[in-house]
Every structure is written in structure tokens, then in C-alpha cells.
Design brief:
The complex is a heterotrimer. Chain A is an alpha/beta fold. Chain A has a 6-stranded mixed beta sheet. In chain A, strand 1 and strand 2 form a beta hairpin. Chain A starts with a helix and ends with a strand. Chain B is mainly alpha-helical. In chain B, 75% of the residues lie in helices and 0% in strands. Chain B has 15 helices and no strands. In chain C, strand 13, helix 10 and strand 14 form a beta-alpha-beta unit. Helices cover 32% and strands 29% of the residues of chain C. Chain C contains 11 helices and 17 strands. A 6-stranded mixed beta sheet of chain C has the order 6-7-8-3-9-10, sandwiched between helices. In chain C, strands 14-13-15-16-17 form a 5-stranded mixed beta sheet, with helices on one face. The chains are: A alpha/beta, B mainly alpha, C alpha/beta. Chains B and C meet through helix 10 and helix 11 of B and helix 2 and strand 6 of C.
Chain lengths: 379, 353, 346
């Protein structure tokens, strides 16, 4: 028996309607969004054709979020939100505007993708320094002087940077017209050491080495936590203060800052732990002395590496109990002559080593066989 | 027989001097009591006399922190005020300040070179010499000031005093431009350090450093007092000054030299401190109503010390938990003082004819 | 008058004055032999640019002479320390005192610098001298006033008082009366001349005021544009034609009779004027000003005026072209002259 023409007509339409619905529903298909365990400022969302990286909290007080679309090279551009920056992955020509990225890239074995760097004096990684010295890696910024033309000529497919809100130094504003692939990171705004280390996953996404990132990070996180356990229960904590004045302005790390967190995790009692804020508190030597005259331990006094240097800077430093007993420690063991320090490169990726160092500072009896990697005692 | 000017009677001057001296002591005492923590005057007294029942931390605060700071403040204020007065007289310009010969810019350049250009290598330099960064800073800024002064004096040997002023200003701008270039090529952290220096601070002069600071200032102040007569004569201009027996060439060099020692030493140890050098002489003239340097130099010393102590007191944020940059406070105090003194005088042109 | 003792306070021998600029010397006057004696009030005259100021500055030690020697009280000028020199020679310049915020007393007290200690303190003698200085210039009562509040004349007096306070035997003044009105100028000249005579000072004053110079100076020095210095008594120079030689040009004539200059007379019309009184004198001057020449008794004239002094008034009897008229005031006469048509022939 033949179907009436009208029914066939309706069936055809119904079928095409269903087909259309199914195809347009594809963007709504399940995506995998990985939210990091410790880091608060990034998220990676996996789509069938691409990934979206979301950044928030790029500078103090910022409520904006930034998104980047990571599309594989060679693939057609999928539908994306308007105005989003597209980065083709895996990237092979990278410009790093801060030295911290070198740490991540080293751990991910991607150092050979670096073609340009800024603030080259502060780089600590020996391999990179050599490449900068022989010109294989170009210097793209000295101080506030950004060489835009040089960056353009390099034709990078990724520029990693962060912003501070200071228009003199922030490069995204300066590069706004250039169409270059600038990616902001907010790792420095994380206050927990593991959070900063976890950004290795964010960086890895651009190189398609997410698994390696996982494999690298997990053991670090585990070790960090187990080290933290050893001191977490200890009641007797040495009192700690940090820093040194820059020509009398002594900026003390706030109670919610990265420094305060590391002190707490390592079993120290930071004297300014109850002052809110993650930025620095502007004090002067007298105010610090009032509170810290009897403190047990002094860490991170600027760039001083010996007690003589310390006292020569200001004889009053000898009046601090920590100064008199020689309990002054600085993270300058790996510091290069030009001011680079691997604690800010490798040390960011391996906060467990930094934690171990600090535990040895605060509770040496717990780490008898550990040798300082980044810290040294001032003599 | 004596001056019939009702505004400038000796008795009035004596009273004013006494009041000023009292004011300086009061603010000094206040500064000793107030700071990161409030101390009673009794505590301060105990700390100074070494009473046994004083908390050693508090005692150290008074003796190692507050006392040198107060002394530095007094000396710096006196130095800048006297230098400013001498500059205003010798250039016959009410806007002249101690830094008009480019002393400040020279010091800034010295510091900029150390902090910005040499920083990484410079610091290892100092470590090797056993000299601290602080001392290097002092040497660099005093050296920069001295070289600038020397350049200006050499260039201005054969010209009249107005040209000296202009030469000084031009050198000032040139050197400032060099500092800008250095700043442009510097990292953010080092700039922070340089900026910190340029805010000015009295708290950096330890007792050891005081052994160099105080004699330099007192010595130059002494020289200034010796030149009271030439300064008075120079008010008439160099021609008339010659005719009453002043050796103007020698006076010019010595006065400029003394003023620059005063200004350069303060800048070297405390950073650039503005406004005190202009405000204190004007305020002194207004209070004592005279142009005679026999009165004005001691007056400026006291007024300068008073303004300086007050500015430092406010900058240390009494009651707040933070401190403010000294330079900003001297400007906030100094500018209104100058404006008020000028409005009262009603006609600045009258000052120098 | 002390003719016996002619103490020479300041002498110059073969002095050449001028200035050098980058090695090039410009000589303003050369080979001058000058002496400024005690009790003498000398006026220095000369056309603009002849070098009066240069001479004063050189004699004051403010400018180096190109050659020659300068002696103060028989001591070589530049061998004396500035302080000693200031006790012997004082200077007053043209420019107004360049300081406002100072009272007159303090300013005059500056004149005691060559005597006071290093702090500038004044002893009894200093104070007496200052008081005397104020009195000598007639400025008592101005001590407490601020300089900025004084009039030009008062300022200049204070300036001179300061120079007097230096107790110097020589005073050099460079056009001190330049900005003053006539009464003030006369007053100042009187004061200065009396000072020179009473205190036996040697005073040298440069001025443009020929008339006052002729009336007050004991001697005149005149600098010519070609660097000559002529010295002599005022009357001698007036009569000798030196004035004419130095100052006259195509527009100016020296009138030895009157002791003054007058614009070059070019009268086409002449007038007879009879009379000896003061009115007659001023009538002659009025007619000269109106462009007439004064006809001698035997000359032809377009106009004849007789000035008649009556008991209670004066009359001007005018005769012209045979017509007669009488005027009772000089204004009437002048109005009439101005109204007349003088283009017609006599």
C-alpha cells in the first residue's frame, strides 16, 4: 500500500529536522573542564576540536577573565566566541617575557622552543643564558624599552607574559595593535606554592604535553604534602620575619602572601601573619625592630649574602636577635652575578625543594641529611 | 640712634629666637615620643639616661633609631635652609634653592648609576671591597654632586652671576635627562629602589655615619657664618659689594662651595629633599623682617630645623601603621609656607629691589 | 678755602682707560694725567659714549686700566687690599639701590663694612658716623623706612649716605642725579659741594647737567669723543670755546653770553627789543622761541617791541609796519604774535 504523499512529506521534514537538531547539538556535547586542585586562576576546557584556557585574576583587583582558544595546527577554525585569541598548538616559537616560564619549559623539555626573552640579565638557566649570549635567543626588552619590531620579525606563535597594571612595563597594551599571540598568565598572583607549580599544566596545554605535566606535578605535590605533614603538628615554631629595607622603606610581605604561606607551611611563625593582604606592607626599620627585635629567624634579606654585608648596610641590623645569633638565611645560594636566581625558575616548579630548604631553616633537626639547594646561611 | 624700624627691634628678634628654639625642642621631643609606638617622655628620658628598668628594645629604639633620626633631621633642615638662603642672596633670586646649581641632579645621577646601571656588578664590587651598598650610595651621590658643582663653577668663572644661575639650571636639566635614560632601560625592581631613594629619608644615618655627616654640615655652617658680611654686601650687587671692600670673587666661590657642601651632604645621606631650602629663608625673612644675614642665618637654621622636624614627624605616620615619603611631606608643608609668606609680603619684587 | 695745602687724594699718571674684549683692546681715552685734590668738587662732563662711566669705574677700581698708574694717597691703587681701599674711596652709581627689603639704617650701616668685625657689629664710632651721614645728606627721619618705600630722591640720598659712612676721602659718583627732578638735583649738588669743602674730600661727579655743573663745580673735567680730557675752571672753559668745540653740532650752538646751548638760530625775521628789566629778558627768550632773531640796534627788523616798566604794571609797546599796539601782559603779546600773518613782506 502506498503512503499518502503528505505523510512522506512530513516524514522527510521530520527526519531532516531531527538530523539538524542532532548536528547543532554537537557544541552542547559534553566537554571536559579540568579545574586544577591548587591553582585558582586558570581552567582548561576540552572540546572535540579545540581547547579553551580561561584566566582570571591577572592583576590585583582585576575581575576580568581572559580566554584563549588552543586549536591544533592544520585544523580548520571551529566556531569560537568572538574576539578570542587563537593559538595554534603545539607552539614551536616562543617568546618569554618573564624568567619564570623558563622553569616550566625546562621541566617540560621544551627549552628549544624559546626564540626570544626579556630581562635577560635575570635569567638563571645556564642553557638559555648561553643561547642568549650567542644570539640564538633574541633579547626583546630592556627595562621599559620593548623592541616591538624585533618581536614581529621573530614571528613567534606564543608570547607568555603577565601584567602588573603598570602601563610602563605591561606589554599587552603596547602590543595591542600588532596582532601577535600574547597570552597572559596569572601564576604570580597565586599565593600557594603548589598553586604556582600547578601552572605547569597551563603552560603544557600549548605544547600538547599535558600528560607530562601531570606526571611531573603529581610527585611534587605528594612530596610537598608529606613534607608539610612532618611540621604541621609541631607546636614550637620559631618566630620569623623577612626582607630588608630598600633605602629605609621596608616592605614586609603581607599575611596572605606567597612568602607568608611558605613560612607557614614550613613550620615557622611569621610575625606579620595576621596582617591581611597579599601585597607588601610599607614599614620602616624602626617599626620592624619594634616587632622583630627578638625574632628567632630572619629570612630573605634582600641581596645580602654575608653578615658583614648585612651589618655594613645598617649597623642596627646587629641589634636584631636573629642577627646576633647568626640565624639569617637568604635564598641566594643559586643567585648569579647578574641577579638571576633559579629559585624563581626551577624553584617555582619544584616548591617541594624550597619547602625542604625552609624546613631545614626552621626545624633543622627534622632534615639532618638535607643539603640546601636555594637557601644559604649568612656567615 | 639704633634702627628705628619698629618691625625689627632687637628685643623682638631675641624673643623670636627663644620661641623658635623652644619650638625645635618641643617637636624634637614629640618626635622622640611618637613613631612606630608611642612612648612617654618619661620612657624617653629613661632610655637616654640608661635607667635600669627600661625595656632594652625600647631603649634601642630611642637611641639607635629615633635619636639619630632627630639629629639628622635638625642638621639637614639647618643645612638646606642656610644653603637656600645663601643661594637666594648670591643670585638675588627669591626662587633659588640649594639645588639650583644642579647639585641634586648630580647626586641623582651618581645614585642612578649605582642603583640602575651598576647594580648587579656594582654590588659584587662593594662586597669585595667590604664596603656596603649604603656607603657606595653615599659616595656616589656626594661624588655626583661634587662633579656637577665643579663643572658649573669652572664654566662660570668669567661670567656674571645671572649666567651662573642659568648654567647651573642647564646642567641640572642635562644631568636629569641622563638619569631619565638610565631609568628607561631599567628593570622594575631597580627602579623601585631608585624611586625609594628619591623619596628622601632621615632614618638612614647611623651613628657611625653621623661621624661624617655632622662635621660636614657643622663645618659648612661655620663657613657660612664667617661670610655674613659679604652676604650682606652682595645684597647690593657685586659692584657695590666691591666698593665697600668685599672680595667678591673669593666670596662668590666660597659661598657657592659652602652651600653645595651643605646641599650635597644632605642629598648624599638622605636623598633629595626639596622645599625646605626655599621655604625656610622666606619664612625667616617674614618673621624677622630683615635682610641682615647676621639675623637671617641663625634664623634660617632654626626655622629650617623646625620645618624639617615637623615634616619628618608627619612622614613617620603618627597613629598610622605606615610611613609616608618625606619629599611629599616637605612639599606639602613647604609650598603653603612659601605662599603664605609671599602673600603677607605682598610684593616679592621688593625683596631684591 | 685752603690754597696752601693741595693734598692729592687720587692721582692718575698716563692712564689709558678702555675695555678689552677677547684680547682686543678698545681705548676710550689715553695718556690721562689726573689729580683729585682734597676739598675739590669736580664735575665730569662729556657727550654720551665718550667714556665718563668708564673713567669713573676705572678710578674706582671696578675696571682695570689699559695702562698707566693709579695712586690713592700716594699708594699704588691695586697694592691696597679691597678693605683698605674701601676706607679711602667710595662710589655711588646711577642705578637705584638693588634691594627692597632693608631699612635705610641697615643700608647706610653697610658703609661701615670696611671697619666692622666679621659679624658686622657696630661700635659707638660706627653709629656716630652713620648718624652723621644721615644728617649730612638731610635724611634724618628716614632711618626706619624700607628702601622700597622711598622716593627716587630719598633713595639717592641714602645711597650717598652709605658712601659717606665709609669715611672715605674720595667719593666718585656716576650720574647720581639722572633720575631726579630739578629741585632735588640742586639740593644734591649743594650737599655734595658743601661736603667736599667742609670735610676736605675729593669728589668727582659725572653729569649731563651742564648748567648745574657750571654753577657748582670747583673744576670741570671734560671728555671729548676722541679721547681727550680737558681740565679747567668752569668759567675758563665756558669762555674758551671748549664747550662749543665739544658739544656743538649742526643743531646746537653754544651761547657764551647766556652760558647755555640753544638750537641753531635760523631766523628769517628779526625783532628789536628795548628794555633791561627781567620782563625784557623773558620777552627776548619768547621771541627766540617763536622763531625770531634779536636784531641789533642798527639792523632792520620786522617788529619792534619796547618793554616799559610803569609803577604798578608793565606794558609792551609793539610797532609793526607802521602800526602800533600796546599789550599789558606777555601772554597777550605772544597770542598777538602767533595770530599775526608774517608771510607778507616787511
Amino acid at each position: 500500500m502506498l503512503m499518502p504523499k503528505s505523510t512522506k512529506y512530513i516524514a522527510l521534514h521530520a527526519l531532516s529536522l531531527v538530523a539538524y537538531l542532532c548536528s547543532s547539538a554537537t557544541p552542547l556535547a559534553a566537554t571536559i573542564t579540568s579545574v586544577p586542585h591548587y591553582a585558582k586562576n586558570f581552567e582548561l576546557s576540552q572540546f572535540p576540536t579545540h581547547r579553551i584556557a580561561t584566566i582570571r585574576n591577572v592583576q590585583r583587583g582585576s575581575t576580568a577573565t581572559h580566554q584563549y582558544a588552543l586549536v591544533p595546527k592544520g585544523a580548520p577554525l571551529p566556531e569560537l566566541p568572538a574576539g578570542i585569541t587563537v593559538i595554534r598548538t603545539p607552539v614551536t616559537r616562543v617568546v618569554v617575557m618573564e624568567t619564570v616560564y623558563i622553569g616550566y619549559l625546562d621541566a617540560l623539555n621544551q627549552l628549544d622552543t624559546i626564540i626570544g626573552a626579556a630581562t635577560s640579565d635575570y635569567i638563571s638557566n645556564g642553557v638559555i643564558r648561553a643561547l642568549v649570549a650567542d644570539g640564538s635567543i633574541q633579547k626583546v626588552q630592556i627595562g621599559a624599552a620593548l623592541n616591538i619590531e624585533r618581536i614581529l620579525l621573530l614571528q613567534p606563535d606564543l608570547i607568555l607574559t603577565s601584567v602588573t597594571g603598570d602601563p610602563a612595563f605591561d606589554i599587552p597594551l603596547k602590543l595591542a595593535r600588532s596582532g601577535l599571540p600574547v597570552v597572559l598568565t596569572a601564576g604570580y598572583m597565586e599565593q600557594h606554592p603548589l598553586a604556582r607549580a600547578e601552572w605547569i599544566k597551563f603552560i603544557a596545554a600549548f605544547f600538547d604535553v599535558g600528560d607530562l605535566a601531570e606526571q611531573t606535578f603529581e610527585p611534587i605535590a605528594t612530596r610537598y604534602k608529606s613534607l608539610h605533614e612532618t611540621v604541621a603538628q609541631i607546636e614550637q615554631r620559631p618566630t620569623v620575619f623577612c626582607g630588608a629595607p630598600y633605602s629605609s622603606a621596608w616592605h614586609m610581605a603581607g599575611g596572605e602572601s606567597y612568602t607568608a604561606q611558605t613560612i607557614r607551611d614550613a613550620g615557622g611563625a611569621y610575625l606579620w601573619a595576621d596582617v591581611p593582604g597579599s601585597g607588601a606592607i610599607p614599614l620602616d626599620t624602626e617599626r620592624v625592630f619594634l616587632k622583630a627585635a627578638h625574632a628567632d629567624i630572619w629570612i630573605n634579606p634582600s641581596f645580602y649574602r654575608s653578615l658583614n654585608e648585612l651589618y655594613a648596610a645598617d649597623p642596627r641590623f646587629q641589634k636584631f636577635h636573629a642577627g646576633q645569633t647568626g640565624h639569617v638565611f637568604n635564598n641566594t645560594k643559586q643567585r648569579t652575578a647578574s641577579g638571576g636566581n633559579s629559585i624563581w625558575e626551577r624553584g617555582i616548579v619544584h616548591p617541594d625543594d624550597v619547602l625542604a630548604d625552609l624546613i631545614k631553616v626552621f626545624h633543622p633537626e627534622l632534615m639532618p641529611d638535607w643539603e640546601f639547594i636555594y637557601y644559604e646561611q649568612l656567615k | 640712634m639704633s634702627t628705628a624700624n619698629p618691625h625689627a627691634s632687637p628685643r623682638r628678634s631675641a624673643t623670636l629666637f627663644a620661641l623658635l628654639g623652644l619650638a625645635v625642642l618641643s617637636v624634637a621631643g614629640l618626635s622622640a615620643c611618637i613613631g612606630s609606638t608611642a612612648l612617654s617622655i618619661e620612657t624617653v628620658f629613661k632610655a637616654l639616661t640608661g635607667a635600669p628598668d627600661i625595656d632594652p628594645v625600647l631603649q634601642q629604639i630611642v637611641i639607635d633609631f629615633r635619636l639619630p633620626r632627630i639629629l639628622t633631621s635638625i642638621l639637614a633642615g639647618a643645612a638646606l635652609a642656610t644653603a637656600g638662603l645663601m643661594m637666594q642672596t648670591i643670585f638675588r633670586n627669591p626662587l633659588a634653592d640649594p639645588f639650583v646649581l644642579g647639585v641634586n641632579s648630580g647626586a641623582s645621577l651618581g645614585v642612578a648609576i649605582v642603583l640602575l646601571a651598576l647594580a648587579p656588578t656594582g654590588l659584587s664590587l662593594t662586597a669585595g671591597l667590604g664596603v656596603s651598598g649604603q656607603i657606595l650610595l653615599i659616595l656616589a651621590s656626594s661624588g655626583g654632586a661634587a662633579i656637577t658643582l665643579f663643572t658649573v663653577l669652572v664654566l662660570s668663572r668669567k661670567v656674571d652671576i645671572m649666567s651662573v644661575l642659568i648654567i647651573g639650571l642647564m646642567i641640572s636639566y642635562t644631568v636629569g635627562a641622563l638619569v631619565s635614560i638610565l631609568m628607561y632601560f631599567s628593570m622594575a625592581e631597580r627602579l623601585q629602589s631608585f624611586l625609594s631613594w628619591s623619596f628622601g629619608d632621615y632614618g638612614n644615618v647611623s651613628w657611625t655615619q653621623m661621624r661624617a655627616f655632622a662635621p660636614a654640615i657643622l663645618g659648612a655652617l661655620g663657613i657660612s657664618l664667617l661670610f655674613v658680611k659679604p652676604l650682606d654686601a652682595l645684597l647690593l650687587g657685586e659692584r657695590y659689594a666691591e666698593s665697600v671692600g668685599t672680595r667678591t670673587q673669593r666670596a662668590r666661590i666660597t659661598i657657592l662651595f659652602a652651600a653645595s657642601i651643605l646641599a650635597g651632604t644632605v642629598t648624599g645621606f638622605c636623598g633629595p629633599i626639596g622645599f625646605l631650602g626655599i621655604a625656610a629663608p622666606h619664612l625667616s625673612r617674614y618673621l624677622f623682617h630683615t635682610s641682615s644675614h647676621r639675623v637671617l642665618i641663625p634664623a634660617s637654621i632654626l626655622v629650617g630645623a623646625l620645618l624639617s622636624l615637623s615634616a619628618d614627624f608627619i612622614a613617620r605616620g603618627p597613629g598610622l601603621d605606615v610611613s609616608l615619603p618625606l619629599n611629599a611631606i616637605t612639599a606639602l608643608i613647604g609650598a603653603p609656607v612659601i605662599i603664605a609668606a609671599l602673600i603677607k609680603q605682598r610684593n616679592l619684587k621688593r625683596l631684591f629691589g | 678755602m685752603n690754597p696752601a695745602l693741595h693734598t692729592e687724594h687720587l692721582t692718575a699718571t698716563k692712564l689709558s682707560i678702555g675695555y678689552s674684549h677677547r684680547g682686543q683692546e678698545t681705548c676710550v681715552a689715553e695718556a690721562l694725567d689726573l689729580a683729585l685734590n682734597a676739598g675739590e668738587f669736580i664735575c665730569l662732563l662729556g657727550p654720551n659714549g665718550a667714556g665718563k662711566s668708564t673713567l669713573i669705574r676705572t678710578l674706582a677700581g671696578m675696571q682695570a686700566p689699559l695702562s698707566g698708574s693709579l695712586k690713592l694717597q700716594s699708594q699704588t691703587f691695586h697694592s691696597i687690599s679691597p678693605r683698605e681701599r674701601a676706607r679711602m674711596i667710595s662710589v655711588v652709581l646711577t642705578e637705584a639701590l638693588p634691594v627692597g627689603m632693608m631699612d635705610a639704617y641697615s643700608l647706610v650701616a653697610l658703609g661701615r663694612h670696611p671697619y666692622s668685625g666679621w659679624l658686622g657689629g657696630l661700635n659707638q664710632h660706627d653709629k656716630e658716623r652713620i648718624k652723621w651721614a644721615f644728617k649730612a645728606v638731610g635724611a634724618e627721619g628716614l632711618e626706619g623706612r624700607q628702601i622700597a618705600e622711598l622716593s627716587d630722591g630719598e633713595r639717592q640720598k641714602i645711597s650717598i649716605a652709605r658712601a659717606l659712612a665709609q669715611e672715605a676721602q674720595v667719593m666718585l659718583l656716576d650720574e647720581p642725579t639722572a633720575f631726579l627732578d630739578l629741585p632735588r638735583r640742586v639740593e644734591l649738588m649743594t650737599i655734595l659741594r658743601n661736603l667736599a669743602h667742609r670735610e676736605q674730600m675729593g669728589l668727582l661727579l659725572s653729569t649731563h647737567d651742564l648748567d648745574l655743573a657750571l654753577r657748582f663745580a670747583d673744576r670741570l673735567w671734560m671728555i671729548t669723543t676722541d679721547g681727550q680730557l680737558i681740565q679747567g675752571y668752569p668759567e675758563e672753559l665756558a669762555m674758551s670755546g671748549e664747550f662749543a668745540a665739544i658739544f656743538a653740532n649742526e643743531n646746537l650752538d653754544w651761547d657764551a653770553e647766556r652760558g647755555s646751548f640753544r638750537a641753531h638760530p635760523n631766523p628769517c625775521l628779526k625783532a628789536h627789543i628795548q628794555g633791561d628789566s627781567i620782563h625784557a629778558l623773558w620777552t627776548r627768550r619768547a621771541l627766540e622761541r617763536l622763531g625770531f632773531g634779536i636784531a641789533k640796534p642798527d639792523e632792520n627788523s620786522a617788529l619792534s617791541i619796547q618793554v616799559v616798566e610803569l609803577d604798578d604794571h608793565t606794558e609792551w609797546a609793539v610797532a609793526r609796519n607802521g602800526n602800533q599796539a600796546t599789550h599789558t601782559s606777555i601772554s597777550q603779546l605772544i597770542d598777538w604774535i602767533r595770530a599775526e600773518d608774517w608771510s607778507s613782506k616787511n
